[in-house]
Specification:
This protein is α/β, with parallel strands linked by helices. Strand 1, helix 1 and strand 2 form a beta-alpha-beta unit. The structure holds 4'-phosphopantetheine.
Length: 169
């Protein structure tokens, strides 16, 4: 019997309900799913890799075939390292397609045996992105229902401490 391992790479800064929706879907079709947080993607992420990892570990604790890891360098190299044969990516709207297609084809060029599998999150998350969540939270809007409660709480704490730092300058 083949045991299919997939990686779900991304920045997850922060994890959203859209990411969790995709993890739930991916965990149903793959034997093992590794949520892989890219290190050093952005120079100034809101959450450190350690914070993102801790949040994702708590959020995925209920899935027995999902684990969380971090990686550096090429996604295809990380996939080979963990013996993954598929890369899971979410496609929300047509606007995602071009970028995702480019990445999938580049990854295929680099590693012909690695398949990219696209899945669609639930419709209610089709406009959701980590970038918008960060922006809305920073500007005081409600992000309830868009991110898990623990992420909402961590966002509040993070933005509060950033505000305090700013005031004490
Ligand atoms: O959540 P994101 O930021 O859309 O995820 C992008 C990610 C991490 C999948 C992409 O930037 C990536 O794969 N980076 C690793 C470096 C790499 O392999 N680059 C070539 C991709 S074709």
């Amino acid at each position: 019997m083949t045991h299919v391992i997939a990686i779900y790479p991304g920045s997850f800064d922060p994890p959203t309900n859209g990411h969790l929706d995709l993890i739930a879907r991916g965990s149903k079709i793959f034997d093992e799913l590794v949520v892989a947080i890219l290190r050093n993607a952005e120079k100034r992420p809101l959450f450190s890799v350690g914070e993102r990892r801790a949040m994702l570990e708590r959020l995925t604790g209920g899935f027995n075939n999902v684990r969380v890891d971090t990686f550096d360098g090429l996604t295809v190299d990380y996939a080979a390292k963990v013996n993954a044969s598929a890369v899971l990516r979410g496609i929300r709207a047509l606007s995602d397609y071009e970028y995702e297609l480019q990445m999938a084809l580049m990854n295929r060029k680099l590693a012909p045996g690695l398949e990219t599998v696209f899945m669609m999150p639930a419709e209610q998350y089709s406009y959701l992105s980590s970038r918008l969540v960060r922006e809305v939270a920073r500007l005081g809007g409600s992000i309830a229902g868009l991110v898990p409660e623990i992420v909402e709480q961590k966002l509040k704490e993070k933005l509060e401490s950033a505000r305090n730092e700013e005031e004490n300058k």
